[in-house]
Specification:
Elements lengths: L2 H18 L3 H20 L6 H4 L9 E8 L6 E6 L5 E2 L2 E3 L6 H13 L1 E13 L12 E13 L7 E7 L13 H13 L4 E2 L1
Parallel strand pairs: 1-6, 5-8
Antiparallel strand pairs: 1-4, 2-3, 2-7, 5-6
Helix pairs in contact: 1-2
Length: about 200
Amino acid sequence: MEWNHFLSKLLALSKVGLKFSKDPYALENYQELHDLVILQSEEVDQKIDSIKLYPKDAYPTPNVSVRVIIFNDKHELLMVKERSDEKYAVPGGWCDVFESARENAIKEVKQETNLDVSLVRLLGVLQRDLYKPKPSMVSEYVLYFLARVEGGVLAYNHELMDIGYFALDALPPLSFKSTEIELRRMLDVAINGKDVDFD
């Protein structure tokens, strides 16, 4: 990874931590990381203006997320119970900077389920704004992938409340993060071997 990408990645991590952490000790550490990135950028002649690099008033573009469809041997669907709304979605989340969609999808599955997976194929690219149950100010593209489990022991992280495989005709209540219309479209592609679906 080049220095500019490395520093930009560290800056992004510090900004995410400063935004979402509530622990005072963690906030101090994220602020120190932020300041070290700025200092190091001057040392390697890659000066970074943290306000300009990740500003709130940048040219507006959609956020990008990934979701991953995983079946077990019984052809049941792996789903995670989101702590945010206490409903279920397929594993996934926001993409991190300077990481490919593939890397993000594999990483999100590992973080949320503790499973090691390989991606089989891209299923679709959807404009999530069209499917959210209530209006949102956030525009988002989501990339759905089909994955195969290669190893690991099923377990969920702090963002979740439960995890498990579900029969396709008995899915649990769905989170706003994976609405039924989106999920059914992507399952149709995965099960029936259709071409990539997109909005």
